[in-house]
Amino acid sequence: MLGSNDPGFAEILKLSDKAVGAGLSDPERERWRTLTEEFLRVLQNISLSGSERRKHLRATTGLPVQVLSPAELRGLLTSSIGGGGLAMPMGDPPPVGTSLELSISVSQRQTPISVKARVVWRRPSPNGEIGAVFTGIDVGDQDLLEGAVIKLLLENRVAGY
């Protein structure tokens, strides 16, 4: 799946381009989900540090995030993101279980992606960080995030896994 000569490699890249562009049809989405699950299994065999629990691919990237709720949190940058959630540094991380409303800026769209999320882990200050799982995200927006992650991973030859 990772080799550029593998037919799955070209297919997942083609579908990723569609996911970050015009969007996927339902049959394409079904095939793409199968390919991304295979890709995730390959990556889990490369590095097991936390990846065995993942249900979505994740890449290290700094996307601007505006925390809309709770209001006391401010705009941040992600440290990693995937179709199922994100991690981001925070000076004073909220408790596990905190519900978040986020606006995520991506280069592929003029308008940010709106998501609801829930904090599932936190690292306290001084190097505070949270991990949040998406609890409400439009399927097309999830496709866009996963497509961007796949493109990042394949362009960097799965750096970080």
Would you kindly provide a brief summary of this structure?
This protein is of the alpha+beta class and 161 residues long. The chain has helices spanning 7-20, 26-46, 139-155, and strands at 58-60, 64-69, 76-77, 80-82, 85-89, 99-104, 113-123, 129-136.
Secondary-structure blueprint of this entry?
Layout: H1 7-20, H2 26-46, E1 58-60, E2 64-69, E3 76-77, E4 80-82, E5 85-89, E6 99-104, E7 113-123, E8 129-136, H3 139-155
Antiparallel strand pairs: 1-4, 2-3, 2-6, 4-5, 5-8, 6-7, 7-8
What's the oligomerization state? single chain
Count up the helices. Answer: 3
Instruction: Please estimate the helix content.
Output: 25-40%
> Terminal Cα separation, in Å?
15 Å
Q: At the fourth CATH level, what is the homologous superfamily of the largest domain? A: predicted glycosyltransferase like domains
CATH class of the largest domain: Mainly Beta
CA radius of gyration is 16 Å
Question: How would you portray this structure in words?
Answer:
The chain has three helices and eight strands, in the order ααββββββββα. 32% of the residues lie in helices and 27% in strands. β6 and β7 (113-123) form a beta hairpin. It has an eight-stranded antiparallel sheet. Residues 48-52 have low confidence and may be disordered. α1 packs across α2 and α1 (7-20) crosses α3 (139-155). The two termini are 15 Å apart. The protein is globular and about 45 Å long. The protein has 161 residues and is of the alpha+beta class. The protein has two domains: 7-57 and 140-155, no CATH class; 61-137, Thrombin, subunit H (Beta Barrel), CATH 2.40.10.
